[in-house]
Amino acid sequence: MKQVEELRYLILAVQREGNRLLAARLRPLGLTPAQAEALGLLAGREPLSLNGLGELLVCESGTNPSRIVDRLVGAGLVSRETDPGDRRHVLLRLTPEGRALARKVAAVEDKLHETLTNLAGDRPLAPALDLLRALAEHFPAGQALARRKD
Questions:
Q1: Alpha-carbon 60 to chain mean position
Q2: Strand partners, 48
Q3: Domains of the chain, with CATH numbers?
Q4: Is residue 78 helix, strand or coil?
Q5: Of 95, 98, 35, 86, which is closest to residue 65 (Cα–Cα)?
Q6: What is the value of pTM for the model shown?
């Protein structure tokens, strides 16, 4: 097996297991990982337009987040408001229920990050992060993640 192939499969394996762990921990909250990501983004950046949210999502990078938002609105977690600066646009905001749930999501993510930190042990993360950033910058999901840092 080529090293680059092994790298690709290792990334896939860790991503799948991380997503499985996250999904299991979000299940009691009634959320999917994609919905949790949207809530977290809104919690830190509201209000956001639908397009603005879509530009930051990694779970659904390059797609329209309407489906995710529709479910969050239907659950009473997100509200849609007409943008006062441009009535053609809609702004998304968390409802009080959405804000409370976003705090619970942040706690779930903190626990997951703690688990992953423990699994990594004393190994330095910087070299892996440098390599993954260099690869990810060529793809929409990596570009969405980079926009979050701006």
A1: 9
A2: 92
A3: 3-149 (1.10.10.10)
A4: strand
A5: 35
A6: 0.89
